[in-house]
Amino acid sequence: MKKEILIVGGGPTGLLLAYELLRRQVPVRIIEKRQGPSHTTRAMTLHARTLEMLDHMGMAHRLEEVCLECPGNLYHFPGLSDDQCPRTDYRVLPTRYPFYYKISQENVELVLREHLFANYSISPEYRTELVALEQDAQESVTATIRHPDGRIEKTSYPYVIGCDGVHSFVRNAAGIKFEGETVAVMSMMDVELSNVTFDDRWMNYYFNKDLFMNCTKMPGKYWRIYMSEPTGHYVFDKNPQKAYQEVADKLGIGFKVGKPDWVTAWDVRNHMAQRYRAGRMIICGDASHVHSPSGGQGMNCTMQDAFNLGWKLAAVFKGEADDSVLDTYEKERKPIGSQVTEGALATHHIVMGFGVEPKDRLYLTQEPAWEARTIKLVSGLSHNYCDVTVLPEGLTPVSGPRPGERAPDALLAKEPKRRLYDALRRPQFTVLVALGTLNPDDVIDTGAKVRDELERLYPRQVSTYLISRQREQRFDIDHESIDELDEFSARYDIPAEGRLIVVRPDLYVGMTCIPSEWEKLASYMSQWFKAGQDGSFSLATVLSRMSRAAHRTSPGFDDEFMPSKRGHMPAGRPVRRFRTYALLAIFILGFLWYSHHRSHRISNSPFYRYDSVDWSLYAYVQYATSSAYLCNSIMIFEALHRLGSRAERVLFYPEEWDTRVDSATDRDSQLLVIAQQKYNVQLMPIDVQLVRGGSDDVGSWDSSITKLLAFSQTQYDRVIHIDSDVTLLQEMDDLFFLPHAKAAMPRAYWEWAQTRKLTSLLILIEPSYREYKALMDAAQPIMAGQVGAGQATADNETTEVRYDMELLNDRYGDSAMVLPHRQYGLVTGEFRTKDHRAYLGNEYETWDPDKVLKEAKLVHFSDWPLPKPWVMWPQKLLAEMLPRCDNKPGTPEESGCRDREVWRELYEDFRKRRKRSDPVVFPGITSPHTHIVAGGSAFQRTMADDTARNANATTCSIDIDRSNYWIPQLYHMMPNGSFELIPFQGMSAYYMNRACNYTEGATTCDKSKYPLAPPQGLRMTAGDPMRRTYNNSDFSNRAIAHMCLKENTSTETKRMPQEPCLRLRSEVFFPSCWDGKNLDSSDHKSHMAYPAIGDYNGGVCPESHPVAIYSVFYEFFFDTSKFTDYQNWVYATGDKSVGYTLHGDYIQGWTNQTALQEALQTCTGTQGERASSCSVTSGVVVGGSTVPLEIPAPVENLGQNGPLPKLPGNNPIINFPNVTSSA
């Protein structure tokens, strides 16, 4: 039996469920019988509760880029003006999202897929169909699965989850009845409109006695229109444009309907599954309920089903909870499904109550509290589990949100902005310890008891969070915040004596109680988890309890956590110390057994399996206060991405910046978008904190204490802040798992003898609002320009200018954990000095610059007064600052100059990484790897739509082809670990008639019809440099291949050849189906698609991308005859002997589009484009011919001057999961 959950269905429900399971370390497999991702879907709204849920999962910010905010619905009753018409205005909702998003299901799925793949390398297996299910009595469910190639697989799983829609195979196989009725017929159209006179921000409902139409503006140029009438005459009309226009005219709407982009029709049904579970088969989403689209609740309700099920299924799968916990999924969600169905039906009767005059339906909107009740129901904010919530006996009733209701969000602080939901991001239960005005010390002590008791019984299942009304000097339980605005206290009705509030992982209140009844919390938790009192310790349990023991015996614990015994040794200390040693012994024995028996690779940390870590609890933090430092921060995020860091990423930036790219020169906005989209960085606008008395330049390092904001990020257990003027050499995720310390920093070893000062170039932080407030309070006099910030004293002396480094040393100089400076504090100035005793830490070790660089994880650029590496150096100053050679320095005979060489290489590498080019994926900034480029001479870092076709020359044999074609460079890894170029021999590009336009019902292409030539300025990519696995059912995977060319034979494989070859041919086949509108898209892929019917290299285009273009296919040839150790061929991405990261980019630059189209349609003989009668060819590049670039490439040794010690960009060799290298 496979130890993973099988999810059937790759829509929003299945994808979200997979994410919830994976973030709790539960392995999943997603199969989907569709040909590929959806491009035509009816769902189009995300409501407030769903957005709160997605924000909790870290995805809401990504959705903002592909949606429109809608304030609510406007019901246009005939005869009433817009001001008189009823409306449901969502702007009054008490939530961070007082509106709903208009967004296509296609884009929701896209964001979910992106996050799944970026965080867990998981993607749905498309064209893979479940054909049979068989459940045994106790243990498993056997699934019979048909693969795209017809192969049949039979595999057993502990649970199978049916997220497979209205016609669910899983539901039918489980024998679950699906009962209900058809209430209407409806059609939907995406279309361009003209002469629109109504407010397009709103969802506009128009209707009369017999007709209904709903009109709303979608992101982009299209409108979405829903239409219904009782006869089906208009709904199923074969000329939908005409039918929609007639209905619009009859309703007096006044717009003109253009040519439809997409039209569909269906029966509107209200159906509910009899039950949601049959043993180990569970249904979720549309498989369990479907209802009228009125109100747009369908996709929201299904995703919230998955949010409810995910944490419960994870606990059961891992043995932390009884199987009976899964029964609560149906108990809680089925009544919600009924509420949603009834609410949708109520709106349905208002707008589609056919046969009843609208004036006779108006009363439905005039009932008391109709608007408030409707928006709370439709938004999901009023959904609750109150009727089925089980509470401990004898619990004193309290005011505030009831157990089972949504846990309200609240703004806790304005600067930096902090919300309650930030504290609830962990995928676990949270106990909020809310202080009132009476006896706060007693409530704090109670909170500590709660923490210890729940950790003892339910390790790693519960976190505690203190919320006080004023700054508490003594401790934080797990984390702490201050209710600065009293919004939390008001929304939760916190009384003077305080309150304990349990919030579930799905953001619902579980239980509330008065502090004196704290012991009942354990009783409440027992319904969800098995108590860990039986003496059996999992590795996670041992780690958790060891961590607690370490906390309790750390210096200052009693001062911080036991104020009543301040200054005294607790009587229990010897017992706890003995317990610590006993636990340590148990841990060591358990770990040795675990290491011996486990089958998975041990991570870089000796105590943690990285695959089992919840990485949402850890983050790297950067701040940028100028364009130069923003670029540096992007380089840091690129390095973290390249080195394989799994932690989250956060960037603080000035609030006056934005992500709206106004022009090609708007570099700040472009870089912010790249950070967000390419490297999954969470962007946090802030009011930059300035230190007066320092530099006048707002962007300078010495005028900002913004890095202190990292201490405020209490949604994380730990964060790492790294100064952006560094080069990262190795990953450092293992720092997150060091023993407890509020701060950890390396020593400023260059000042060791005088000051013992710590350097803030790298800080490992345990975020705490108390610590943040203390640091900011200490900074206030400096920020105000008072003495201590470089001002004159009464004695007319100038005090020391104090910045973040001094503030941190004041607070942590004697208590911080000290990180080894040889790994985490190396500065470039060390290569310029001849006295290395401070760095080496002794007087006997010999300085070796190569050894030093190899053991360092980062290098900080610090060579004052020499400027930073992105600033042009004064040549005279450079000559003075260069590291001196050991022998005869400054003479023609000088030698022993390795320090100088290393120093120069560090600066040159930094500059090269700021300049390396890829104008499609990384316009205007550094590409993380090098490419081999063919085509027009205008190739450069930033290219407009017409840049390519205006090139002066081309390497193509056809002069009018100024397009650019490129793939990663291929290297050979030598026995000493260095890299040499494998010679490029040339490339061939082909434009082929393989795909055809979308036509309803078409299954094959008519070869007598010709597709379009690729449009001028088209940009697209194929393949993925981040791909780590191969999925044969995914066309984008199959479109990448390799050909091993020998003297008389050739073999094509998807992986790199696993045998010696005379030549390697790297092949890229681009998507052939265009959306007909966009020459590019944010991911450089979404505007293109592979065929929906057929294969990656030919077939009928999907309805979403209906325009077929000539298929672009190219081959790059490398001379591998001298490199017989094929297992050491390496792409510039770090892909060694596997080849999954091969990808291609294309910019169309043909100078004569008409000539290209005519040639492609006429050069169809046996000689094709090589026929002498053909006016142009499809562009064969011969002999690796070269032309000079019009914009010279950055000067960089990419291997052309001999072997490189590292791949350009310092790309490491990739470790591919589930791929056994032949190396």
UniProtKB/TrEMBL annotation:
<dbReference type="InterPro" id="IPR029044">
    <property type="entry name" value="Nucleotide-diphossugar_trans"/>
</dbReference>
<feature type="domain" description="DUF1996">
    <location>
        <begin position="918"/>
        <end position="1150"/>
    </location>
</feature>
<dbReference type="InterPro" id="IPR036188">
    <property type="entry name" value="FAD/NAD-bd_sf"/>
</dbReference>
<dbReference type="GO" id="GO:0071949">
    <property type="term" value="F:FAD binding"/>
</dbReference>
<dbReference type="GO" id="GO:0016740">
    <property type="term" value="F:transferase activity"/>
</dbReference>
<keyword id="KW-1133">Transmembrane helix</keyword>
<feature type="transmembrane region" description="Helical">
    <location>
        <begin position="615"/>
        <end position="637"/>
    </location>
</feature>
<dbReference type="InterPro" id="IPR038220">
    <property type="entry name" value="PHOX_C_sf"/>
</dbReference>
<feature type="transmembrane region" description="Helical">
    <location>
        <begin position="578"/>
        <end position="595"/>
    </location>
</feature>
<dbReference type="GO" id="GO:0016491">
    <property type="term" value="F:oxidoreductase activity"/>
</dbReference>
<keyword id="KW-0274">FAD</keyword>
<keyword id="KW-0560">Oxidoreductase</keyword>
<feature type="domain" description="FAD-binding">
    <location>
        <begin position="4"/>
        <end position="342"/>
    </location>
</feature>
<keyword id="KW-0472">Membrane</keyword>
<keyword id="KW-0808">Transferase</keyword>
<dbReference type="InterPro" id="IPR036249">
    <property type="entry name" value="Thioredoxin-like_sf"/>
</dbReference>
<protein>
    <submittedName>
        <fullName>AlphaN-acetylglucosamine transferase</fullName>
    </submittedName>
</protein>
<dbReference type="InterPro" id="IPR002938">
    <property type="entry name" value="FAD-bd"/>
</dbReference>
<dbReference type="InterPro" id="IPR018535">
    <property type="entry name" value="DUF1996"/>
</dbReference>
<keyword id="KW-0285">Flavoprotein</keyword>
<keyword id="KW-0812">Transmembrane</keyword>
<comment type="similarity">
    <text>Belongs to the PheA/TfdB FAD monooxygenase family.</text>
</comment>
<dbReference type="Pfam" id="PF09362">
    <property type="entry name" value="DUF1996"/>
</dbReference>
<dbReference type="Pfam" id="PF01494">
    <property type="entry name" value="FAD_binding_3"/>
</dbReference>
